[in-house]
Amino acid sequence: MRNLAIIAFLLLGLTSTPAGAATTSWRSLTPAQQEALAPLSQQWDSLPEQQQHRMLKTAKRYPNLTPEQKSRFRDRLEAWSKLTPEQRDAAREKYRAFSKVPAEKREQVKRMVRQNQEAKVQQSASGVPAAPPPLQP
Amino acid sequence: MNTNTNLPNENSRHIAPERIAQLLTRAAQQLDDNTVTALRHARNVALQRQSLSEPVFALSTGHSIRWLLPHSTHQWMAAIILFVAILFGGVSYWQHTHENDLSHLDTAILTDDLPLEVFVD
Predict the structure, then answer these.
(1) Could you tell me how far CA A11 lies from the centroid of its own chain?
(2) Set of chain A residues whose Cβ sits within 8 Å of the Cβ of B110
(3) Closest by alpha carbon to A58, among B101, B112, B119, B113?
(4) Minimal CA–CA distance to A94: which of B111, B103, B105?
(5) Residue ranges in B54-72 assigned as alpha helix (H)
(6) How far apart are CA B113 and CA A75, in angstroms?
(7) Among A83, A93, B74, B79, which residue is least crowded by beta carbons within 10 Å?
């Protein structure tokens, strides 16, 4: 009975290791990790351990990105880290669903989004509301 | 004198098995019909009981299952440790794959040419 209790304890200890570990301080990160996660340097120490763990996993892919992708990554990282776990899960689900859409339709959506963004930029520059972009058939 | 008293024992020790079989056959031939029938019936009943309680197939399967089951406390402990190790390995593998998928997805969202707002409510 005592042995069974020890085994159960070991099992719990082993399976809960990633969630139960302590947070990692910004100073203890490697220069490569600090470069990838630079936009989070201020709030890093206050992030929950699980989020830190996931961010570190994501940062591993940073060196393999193109310069343009690196720039997007850094620009979006702070906003991404401020989302709630539920919002991040919902975003992942949306992205997954969007990846399954045929390439042609995806391009169409991307064009619409780009036109929308350009219209917004023009609007903020001139102060006059721009006409919405025409819908593609 | 001593030789005479020891003779039956010595004889019984040195009788060949074939001789015993012959003696038994001759003795059996001298039995009356009722006794032979009763003996044959008893033999058949005994054989039937044996085949009912221990059929050949069940005997072999039961044996192999029993052989697989742990017999002692130590074997039980070893089996439990093995089970825990396999379970832990499976959970770790699943966790690793799941985390890899998530980090791949997160990187894709953070670097996609569509802005983040498209995917965030």
Answers:
(1) 31
(2) 58, 72-73, 76-77, 80
(3) B101
(4) B105
(5) 56-68
(6) 12
(7) B74
Residue A133 backbone class (left: φ over 0; alpha: ψ -120 to 50; beta: rest): beta
pLDDT tens readout for residues A11-27 = 555 555 444 457 889 99
A127 three-state secondary structure: coil
If pLDDT is split at 50, 70 and 90, which confidence band does B2 have? very low
For A123, phi and psi rounded to 5 degrees? -60, -45
Long-range contacts, stretch A55-58, CB < 8 angstroms, 24+ apart: A55/A81, A56/A24, A56/A29, A57/B99, A57/B100, A57/B102, A57/B103, A58/B103, A58/B106, A58/B107, A58/B110
Residue reference for tokens 């390995």: B89
* Angle, CA of A103, A104 and A106, to the nearest 5°: 60
pLDDT tens track for B16-50: 888 888 888 888 888 888 888 998 899 999 988 87
Closest residue in chain B to residue A107, using alpha carbons only: B114
Which pTM does this prediction carry? 0.59
Closest residue in chain A to residue B109, using alpha carbons only: A95
**Chain A contact for B101 (CB, 8 A cutoff):** no
Contact at CB, A94 and B103, closer than 8 angstroms: no
C-alpha span between A56 and A34 (Å, rounded): 10
